[in-house]
Design a protein that fits this description.
elongated, 243 residues, 4-stranded antiparallel sheet, Alpha-Beta Plaits, Structural Genomics Hypothetical 15.5 Kd Protein In mrcA-pckA Intergenic Region, Chain A, single chain, 7 helices, alpha+beta
Amino acid sequence: MRLDKLLAHTGYGTRKSVQKLLKEGVVTVNGKVAKKGSDKVDPKVDEVVIFDEMVHYQKYYYIMLNKPQGIISATEDAVHETVIDWLGPEFWHIDLFPVGRLDKDTTGLLLITNNGQLAHQLLSPRKKVTKRYQALVSGIVDEEDIRRFEEGLDLGDFITQPAKLTVVDVRQALEQTWIEVEIVEGKFHQVKRMFEAVDKEVLELHRLSMGPLVLDDELLEGDFRLLTPQEMEKLKPYGLIEE
């Protein structure tokens, strides 16, 4: 790839600011001062150094975020803070995006990456990637609700795929139920709309997993980290082709 593209991708500024650094003679490739951004380099073979520091190139990034309430699952927004804003300037030079969306008030697992192939595979309806949620619901969830979720619910604009609904705890006095639900779709407000279809309201919603990726229970709400090699290995069947 071009040298200026490599340096911009690894966080050394825009193409224009990288050109300035090259003119200052602070960049070397395999021990020789590099002056032209158009010079071709192989990040896996060539030794690129700037300010006496080795440049480490990484094509794809995979970040697990325990999304907090109040931020939106988007790359940019004129009004609201986004999950990309939340990551901070350390990652702003990378074209990251969230894989799917969680509502503004929904918390939990959100994968953020710049690997479009992986995102497409995880979100494709044909792949039927399971998303598992925990929710607090108003009303007492009963066997009839479980049956209707299993059969698929008519939400007006579409009929849901069969979903697995499990009762975790019942608060009889408050007429509330803690549940877990597994769906293979991820349409707009889908879990909330499914419970509305059985005359119940979702009060809290938290995503626990997406496909083979499970939210790290040591990640506090708002915390994030890079995926581990073991987690990345589990994603390979979905299109994780390189780091």
